[in-house]
Amino acid sequence: xxxxxxxxxxxxxxxxxxxxxIALIGNDRLSRLWIDRGGPARFDIHLGRVSKILPEMAxxxxxxxxxxxxxxxxDRVDGPLHEGQWVIVQISRLGFEDKGPKLTGRIAIExxxxxxxxxxxxxxxxxxLPRRLKDEDRRASLSALFKGLVAREESITLRSLxxxxxxxxxxxxxxxxxxxxxxxxxxxxxxxxxxxxxKALSDADQLIERHVMAGGECIVDGADEFVxxxxxxxxxxxxxxxxxxxxxxxxxxxxxxxxxxxxxxxxPRVPLPGGGWIAVxxxxxxxxxxxxxxxxDADNDQARRAEQVNLRAASxxxxxxxxxxxxxxxxxxxxxxxxxAPRDRFExxxxxxxGPEMSGAVQFGGFTRLGLFELTRQRGGIALAELMHxxxxxxxxxxxxxxxxxxxxxxxxLRAGQAGRYRLHVAPEMxxxxxxxxxxxxxxxxxxxxxxxxxxxxxxSRADYRLEKL
Length: 470
Prior knowledge:
Blueprint: E1 10-14, E2 20-26, E3 29-36, E4 45-54, E5 59-63, E6 70-73, E7 86-93, E8 102-104, E9 109-110, E10 114-117, E11 126-128, H1 136-147, E12 155-158, H2 167-189, E13 195-198, H3 203-213, E14 217-221, H4 223-235, E15 243-245, H5 252-255, H6 258-265, E16 269-271, E17 277-282, E18 287-292, H7 302-323, E19 328-333, H8 340-354, E20 362-367, E21 373-377, H9 384-388, H10 399-415, E22 422-426, H11 439-448, E23 453-456, E24 465-469
Parallel strand pairs: 1-14, 11-12, 14-15, 18-19, 22-23
Antiparallel strand pairs: 1-2, 2-3, 4-5, 4-7, 4-13, 5-6, 7-8, 9-10, 10-12, 16-17, 17-18, 19-21, 20-21, 22-24
């Protein structure tokens, strides 16, 4: 799911390790968190080969380049399919757990300012302008521009971000998007093996670029990411005063207390303001959330107290679902409320907290006969706990999470210290992740001024290290 805030929100980007962590701050509180480690993204375009037909699922399995086989429903492609057939497909939903990605044959090539649908069998030539564009003269000029550009088999959806772009910028982006389709068609004309034709922006990149292009405040900890975003703004003639590089002695997420929020989002118990707490238990089948009143503000009226705790819990439940990137079935056990009115107010509080997600990503099932509240939330990639932990219920960091923790901690240690020669002691299983030529080693060399000596230490756990000055 791509979700963003407004120009009044702040975006914090931690890009000092082998991953980027992006925090969206609204009303001075962490509201969303993304961890981007590269890999496949929604809207990636592949030349794939049909590996198996699944009549019982009305779909086909398609072999892809560097990604698990994807599922292509028959109703998302024009014409019949057969095993061995080469097809141009696009990832519409990322894989999760043991499921591969979901695919579509209806290609939509996403740019920063517009979306091109290059192969419209029906309804080609359509030009869709943003609803928020109320200036009739501007609507007329954009319609006239695109009518002279859009081919009969194409359709264009213009993003709000591009309303004020000049004609050269609009035609230039359209030319770039058409080049992607040409590349895909050329790959289909002479197939040899599955290939990734077009690498789309990740959800995190889309959020970042839309935020900074809209003038939202963005603070970046990491020189390369700061330079990239400044170049993006300057290349399009935008002011970059709202883009700030963090260069303090502390890491950005430490300075803004984001690390504490991340730690809370990895724990089952979350305290509520004013007292009470919620327990979040994620399983393979569903996510169960229990609302508890223990420690909440005293109120002689038990019914009123229950409703107050439930209403405080509603916004925190939504916040935790978003921070933890939890999708699928969610079952909430609120404090018992008598009557329809308080239940309606609880549901309204949930709807208000989800905001724009209610337009399609979230569906409410409502209260059950036993007083539970059910909802489903569209899955949007890997949950935070799965990114960070290799096993449960006794979680240990994944090797990737441990590597990034070490890199971030060493950067933290040396930011206020001195560069020079160091020996870095790590667990034996982490040696190869920091060896010569790896991204991890390059980051350490940049922080220390030279590559450190590496030493394996059997006494250290996966995410631990010891730094020795030479």
